[in-house]
Amino acid sequence: AASSVLILPFLISLTAAALIPADLTVVTDSLTQKHGAACLDGTNPGYYYAPANSTAMNTTWVLYFKGGGWCYDLDSCASRASSELGTTNLTAKTFEFAEGPFSNDPAINPDLAGAHRVLLWYCDGASFTGSVARPVVVDGKPIHFRGKHNLDAILEDLSTRYSLGDATDVLVSGGSAGGLAAFLHADYVRSQLSSSVKRYKVAPGSGFFMLHSEADGSPTYPNEMENVFRMQNSSGGVNQACLGGEAVDWHCIFGPVAWKYITSPIFPLQSVLDSWQMGNIYPRTWKTCTTNHFDNCSSSEIDGLNLFAQAVMSNATGSATFRRDGNGGFWHSCLMHVGEQGKGWQQYKINGVSMQQGFSKWWQSASTEPASSHTYTQTAFLSTDTPHQSNPSC
What we know:
The protein is of the alpha/beta class. It is built from 12 helices and 14 strands. About 50% of the residues are buried.
């Protein structure tokens, strides 16, 4: 690795001066019908769009998948359909981009400030993977599982209404469930863009959700995500090479599994001790431990968390993707979720290199450069001594 040391979800706001509002665009009726697209409640899908603000960046785009968890069964999806994460009827008219690779502030985002920025609104509950032909009726209300079709409709709307079809440089990113979407659709989005694209890269944020049991051995989260995959008929909305290569189809809805099959240049922004995963995957319990920089953890809990962090890294390093030219990643141990959308973008460091600096070096690099030149990892995560956190930048 290039460096080592002894790294639900909403965008985090900055001061108003550092933000640029993006306007809500609802996909046209004709394209919605063409693709059979629909939010959970049946409304047209949508996205927020902010145009490039300089000629130099006029063919550079950031496509950012919105996060917001998942709905694991019909009842929760029916409930979600009545929220802003299941419709475009309740969404705000504007959205403000904050930190990370979608900020318009050159001091925060020197590479991509001024690019066209798109937030793909998340209204399907399955990271843009669903494809059930007919709505499912729940308590008399039709619920639509059409996330994959929403993605197709949004991409075509961006090309026909705006100028995505003329793009030369494209970054695909996303946070949390949107980070998972970036893993799942990394190669697919590239296949849908025009031949004018010369630089295409993917930087998923906090989307490497583990296929892992909780501390007592219960496979709660894997079961939940299998339910999502089956209920929404997600087979057509995950990486198709993964689907053909894995013995268990629903495993392909997990970032660490899709990771093995991604061919596009990729740079995960990922905590190996992600706070959402601490509360919902492993350990799921130990609530007093997985807060406040792990200050209240027992030695046995520290041991368990280190084993989980090692499992995250084993899933990453065990694939050829980790070593493929053009790739990289920032794998830190800070107790956070989507910190790359907030202060963690500039604060979190590995051997003096911040997440933003590591990303910038990778974004500007050629696809032939070795992954080792752009991969930032830690040799230690938590110590049994206090302070437990091994990364002082956290």
